Amino acid sequence: MDLATFWFIVIAVLWLGYLFLEGFDFGVGMLLPVLARDETERRVMVNTIGPVWDGNEVWLLVAGGATFAAFPGWYASLFSTAYLPLLLVLLALIGRGVAFEYRGKVDSPRWRATWDRVIMFGSWVPAFGVGLVLSANVLGLPLDAHGDRVGSPLVMVRWETLLGALALVGFCLVHGAAFVALKTEGDIRERARRLAVRIAPVALAPLVALLLVVQLRAGEGWTWVPLGVALLAAGAALVQLARVREGWGFAFLGVAVAAAVTTLFGALYPDVLPSTVDPANSLTVHGAASSPYTLTVMTWVAAFGTPAVLVYQGWTYWVFRRRIGTRHIPPVHVP
Known about the structure:
With 335 residues, this protein is an all-alpha fold. The protein has 14 helices and two strands; from the N terminus they run ααααααααααααββαα.
């Protein structure tokens, strides 16, 4: 395997890590006004992701940085074409991060309610925007021979990319509900588990449809295998959640997203960004890659840095592995 292909796989793995970790992260924020009945339960939900949400976002930054360094042509064409949706995603993530830090700074129901709305919108918008951009990358963009966009700034908004946006939103909702059920106790746990079971068939339907569209348009024979694994894992997750086995349900959702990412990037290869104008304009793994020297340096840096990051993040999840409930939250004094 050459270094260009290796880094294409690394970027796919980084996207997998981001979608799995930030998937439940976004889901918790999206479901904040749905699952929580009072301020104490809202604090329980925020505390389930409080120690890890910022670390989860690192995967997106590293995926973007790795794309910039390993495939500068891919980065330039995709990010310039997706400038508007990515700007909205960035603003939403900034607001979301500020909201987590600020919601408890003033002892006022109105103050907390305002920041809770920011958390909610700051979770819905990035999930929708990232799903839109990622599906557009896999399904292709109108690029000319120079890799520049052909058409308006909203050219990536098509029915199949909107399907991709709904696919990620639906997955985040189910994944977030499963995570809340896994990390909490009492009424909120049962409420989250029942919600995950109830919405899963509808919420995951766009993801199934997206995988089928990608497979039928650009898939290879072998990519039917991960597509089938994704379907089976999603069904198994639903069964396990219905049986009150939140851990297994959450794990199977992880298998489902891993298989889905494998299907998407497997169908994308050997391109990194297909052109819908002319296949000859498509950016390929080897055509868009950096020099062998750059890829070699990146590989050595990643070899030393990645284990440290994984150990640190794994340790964080281990330290905060226990369930939390309303009994762990001190009462709030409201003047």
